[in-house]
Amino acid sequence: MTPKVYGIYGSPPFGAVLMCANVLKIKINIEIVNILSKAHLKEDFVQKNPQHTVPLLDDDGFLLADSHAINGYLVGTYGSKNDPLYPKDDIKRRALIDHRMYLDCGIIAARGFVITRPLGLDGIQPVQPSFDDLKEGFATLDRQIRQENSKYIVGNELSIADFSITSSVTCWGVFVKNWENEFPNIKAYIDRMKQEAWFEVHTEGINAFQRFVNAKLQVAL
What we know:
By secondary structure, the protein is of the alpha+beta class. The chain has 2 domains: 4-78, Glutaredoxin (3-Layer(aba) Sandwich), CATH 3.40.30.10; 91-215, Glutathione S-transferase Yfyf (Class Pi), Chain A, domain 2 (Up-down Bundle). The protein is built from 9 helices and 4 strands; from the N terminus they run βαβαββααααααα. Strand 1 (4-7), helix 1 and strand 2 form a beta-alpha-beta unit. Helix 1 (12-24) runs antiparallel to helix 6. The chain is globular. The relative contact order is 0.15. InterPro entries: Glutathione-S-Trfase_C-like (IPR010987), Glutathione-S-Trfase_C_sf (IPR036282), Glutathione_S-Trfase (IPR040079), Glutathione_S-Trfase_N (IPR004045), GST_C (IPR004046), Thioredoxin-like_sf (IPR036249). Pfam families: GST_C_3, GST_N_3. Homodimer.
């Protein structure tokens, strides 16, 4: 049975799953859940995912939420043995990948959602401290990339953490004024990721996110 992913273009975590599936060459069925119209709060979806978030994976009845968890599952299920994307046996590399994903979900994505969730669902405009917090998160990421000093976010092999970081930066970066000049390590990293074949599947999401911001944001950055 073909795995199904519930989500919406413009959701950074949904974009991360699309990129991972592309690299693994997994055919997936996409079911759009329009979170802007609060479709994720409908009872039938909440029964599938009590967190009422997207993306949500349905793999032959196995339901899993959160893009980081989904991508780890996809590699473990459909990837090669000890796949460097998220290796089973290389504990140190796996721990570093986990760290970068926690950096994403605990700092970058968490601070991004502080801005976009109330903006998208209730039209509540963000305040300057929220922009400042996200910018500080970008500063943390910039230092991490500088310290790593490698092609990817963990060494010189692609990992599932790259999908999360790439998706978050290319979407929520719209709220970090002048980030491409202020954070040169992130800029160089994203430029490298844009050269990867898998990045193409995320472009529709980037465009959708920008349309969302153009339609909803009323305050100056």
